[in-house]
Write a structure and sequence with these properties.
The complex is a heterodimer of chains A (110) and B (118). Chain A has 110 residues and is mainly β. Chain A has no helices and nine strands. In chain A, the strands form two sheets. In chain A, strands 1, 3, 4, 7, 8 and 9 form a six-stranded mixed beta sheet that branches. A three-stranded antiparallel beta sheet of chain A has the order 2-6-5, with no helix packed on it. Chain A is globular and about 40 Å long. The termini of chain A are far apart. The model of chain A has no long low-confidence stretch (mean pLDDT 97). Chain B is mainly beta and 118 residues long. Chain B has no helices and eleven strands. Chain B is globular, with a radius of gyration of 13 Å. The termini of chain B are far apart. The mean pLDDT of chain B is 97. The chains are: A mainly beta (110), B mainly beta (118).
Chain lengths: 110, 118
């Protein structure tokens, strides 16, 4: 049972905009910034968004993060077939003194 | 190129021990807090351990008292000593660098598999 709640799946067609939600509590998302990771099968997760909405170098601006209260979301616009992956949200948890993760959302491009 | 490479995974019996290592290169290792994160076979991610640049360590309750994280800045290496291993510790273990602070892990190793089974 993951601390942060994500929908298990999401889907869209090429070119569409898809949003993935992430819900937490006061000790994590409510108090700290949110990060998003993208993971392809057999690979390590890759940092996609940090500090709620910042993108590391090389991440296209089709990926956008936002946060409000104890929830966050990742929006992917101009969906492409190679966006198919599992997406995880995470945030520092003040009670744990470490990061917590969502259970992951598998994105399918139809 | 910034890189992390883990080693030391394998099959171990319940109650046994294993020591993971992680070799870092391409960045100033001593400048960053380092962590171990694991991914269970069902895909969930769990934070396992943190060691700060000052050497302070933190663990979740699930591994506290059983796992020990350490680092050697001279040879840019991170370690995880795992004792009293349980079936539930079976996972892929990733060495990660907190490059952007607040638990934002910008560098990940490929992972090493730890299987605990009799």
């Amino acid at each position: 049972q993951s601390v942060l709640a994500q929908p298990p799946s999401a889907s869209g067609t090429p070119g569409q905009r898809v949003t993935i939600s992430c819900s937490g509590g006061r000790s994590n998302i409510g108090s700290n910034t949110v990060n998003w990771y993208q993971q392809f099968p057999g690979k390590a997760p890759k940092l996609l968004i940090y500090n709620n909405h910042d993108r590391p170098s090389g991440v296209p601006d089709r990926f956008a993060g936002s946060k409000s209260g104890t929830s966050a979301s990742l929006a992917i616009s101009g969906l492409q077939s190679d966006d198919e992956a599992v997406f995880y949200c995470s945030a520092w948890d003040d009670n744990l003194n470490g990061p917590v993760f969502g259970g992951g959302t598998r994105l399918t491009v139809l | 190129e910034e890189q992390l490479v883990e080693a030391g995974g394998g099959l171990v019996q319940p109650g046994g021990s294993l020591r993971l290592s992680c070799a870092a290169s391409g960045f100033t290792f001593s400048d960053y807090d380092m962590h171990w994160v694991r991914q269970f076979p069902g895909k969930g991610l769990e934070w396992v351990a943190l060691i700060t640049t000052d050497g302070d360590t933190h663990y979740p309750d699930s591994v506290k008292g059983r796992f020990i994280i350490s680092r050697q800045n001279v040879n840019t290496s991170l370690y995880l000593q795992m004792n009293s291993l349980r079936d539930g510790d079976t996972a892929v273990y990733f060495c990660v660098c907190e490059g952007f602070g607040m638990g934002a892990f910008d560098i990940w190793g490929p992972g090493t598999m730890v299987a605990v089974s009799s």
